[in-house]
Structures
1.
Amino acid sequence: MTERQSPTAAIVLAAGEGTRMRASRPKVLFELLGRSMLGHVLAAVRALSGDVVVVTGHRRGEVEAHLEEIDAEARPVFQPEQRGTGHAVRVALEALAALRQLPATSDLTGSVLVVPADTPLLTPSSLQAVLEHRESTGAACVVLTAIPPDPAGYGRVIRGDDGALAAIVEDKDADAAQRAIREVNTGVYAFEARALARVLGRLTTDNAQGEEYLTDVVGILVADGERVSAVVASDWREALGVNDRAQLALARACLRDRRNTELMRAGVTIIDPATTWVDVGVQVEPDAEIWPNTILVGATRVAGGARVGPNCYLADTDVGSGARIRDATCEGAWIGPDAEVGPYTYLRPGTRLGRAAKAGAYVEMKNATVGAESKVPHLSYVGDATIGERTNIGAATVFVNYDGLAKHHSVVGDDVRIGSDTMIVAPVSIGDGAYTAAGSVIVDDVPPGALAVARARQRNVEGWVLRRRPGSAAAEAARRAGATEPTPGDAPAPGDAPAPGDADDRSSG
Ligand code: UD1
Ligand code: CA
């Protein structure tokens, strides 16, 4: 690595309107893998040392507020009118001179790295290579170029007969022969500060877009006899500039592939990288397995030995070693080691599943702690509850936590058996080792070891179908099974009178 003699500054260009996005928010705030486009570029720039200025303009308030959040050290510089990339750099250089308390931009020394904010795939190593190349050769300007399969839309790199960099021509200004050139400008440059300051004032707006092109600096420096050269990026994808939402999707897919490859190289099994999306802030430990159609976002962590997917969305969720999660949405949940979640399970914020606990099919939980080895296997809602260890919650149990005014908390002890279809009306407490009968509505505390029964007793009205649904398939089946009508004159069976609406004789046989 070259010893750096003079300070380095980086200028990130983020003032443009991003018209081609057709968006109501600034282009550079669009996210890829949980980080804004500007955030990706800054992360790459920050891997190098030096001052960072970010040129803002269009919707600067939003961009500057975001910048303050992600990188408070970076200095925003306002470009009131977006008069082109050359103009943006001119404004930035003036701010940089002021920052260093120099009388004029011509007093600046060292390297100036220029980076567009709409190229989220740039890597620190390419930025470093461009800077080092400039510093080791003493060139006035080194351009990072790339050779994409389709160069349309990018500035083309014009080289002389000797192969030396001669100029950059914008797509809109290029002739047919120039358009056929596949080597393009990535928009990343390392300049010698003084040379840059000297030529910026000579840019004109005499071009297809009526803008001051930074790209024209290259041709001007060459004409001045300055040394100018190019470094070709090893991977053309680094050049991917995001101007519209199709390019955004392409860049996002490239980042996804890059991230998945890193994870797989680090020992994570990914069954289908094309449908696995892991945000930059997510931690996946070696030996974890991710199955298809899985999206991991926010501060999610997946421990080694865990398996997530297929079909999972996990946000800010911690998954312990050996846990199994499939077909589930989990937000702000903590899933203990060897726990089992899914299929079709929704874990909301504040859910804590202990070791080897289970949240099964069609189960929703929120603000609930489930102790080790306890199971909620089917069709239940557990909200605002604490459940002990080794407890089983029967199918279709509901923790009735809301009375229309406030949420209330219920507690269920260790080794409890909650019968199917129990309504646990909060706040109640069910003691260790207690049982509840299926179909109970529990409104009072249940002491340890008690059986709580809270439901009407069953009664059978003999012969009802034969009397009330004569001739029906049910009546025929009942007769075949030996059912008989009570003899006339017998006292009517208790409850034989039709319940409201249940025997209006409109049913057809
Ligand atoms: C630019 C380059 C092109 C290169 C491509 C790489 C120029 C003239 N063209 O084209 O050679 O192949 O990037 O992606 O430089 N910006 C400002 N202020 C302005 C204008 C733009 O800050 O007045 C910012 C934009 O927000 C953007 C960046 O500069 O982040 C590049 O501008 P954009 O309009 O996207 O340039 P391209 O047409 O993509
Ligand atoms: Ca662009």
Note: The longest strand covers residues 184-192.
2.
Amino acid sequence: MINIVLFGKPGAGKGTQAEFLKEKYNLVHISTGDIFRFNIKNETELGKAAQVYINRGDLVPDSLTIKMLESEVNKNTEASGFLFDGFPRTEAQAIALDNFLKTKDWQITATIALDADDTVLVERILERGKTSGRADDQDEVKIRNRYAEYNEKTAPLIDFYKKQNKFYAVNGIGTITEVTERLGSVIEKL
Ligand code: AMP
């Protein structure tokens, strides 16, 4: 079983790359952002609770996010591996994930970051916002807030995974195929 955390700032290309990697390595792709958006669209209780945070560009509270993630994993216990996209984003989430996987005798195999410069990323998100319909993609103040959240709460996870010898990074700038190949060369050595 391989369980991979795809790591990177908003706009780094996690969702795009996940689409290729899940096919190539037969992984169940879990994007917490996509699940939140699905719940908002369908006006579920979870969607209503998460919407206010997402629209501001804030992280959704850990309690809600962790519970949702665990229930998604539990829907796929026959999986040969998972690709976590956008989770964990805080140290509390990373600890909860380790503990939860341990209850199943599973663990994270590797965390792979897509590196890219902030200025390139903000441009990419604004461009995506023209078609994604996402409120948090269309306003530079909200986008900057997502980066502030990343720097404060998510960046410390780099050290968290380095301490476990599970952190890898690839250059996230290039064509989609080039980046998929870079990720693949890390995965194939695991
Ligand atoms: P994403 O599509 O991954 O950029 O996520 C969009 C938004 O969903 C984020 O800005 C957060 O508000 C929320 N979100 C997604 N994943 C998480 C997470 N692991 N923890 C907290 N909030 C999250």
Note: The pocket of adenosine monophosphate is lined by residues 10, 32-33, 36, 53-54, 57-60, 65, 86-87, 89, 93, 136, 146 (CB under 6 Å).
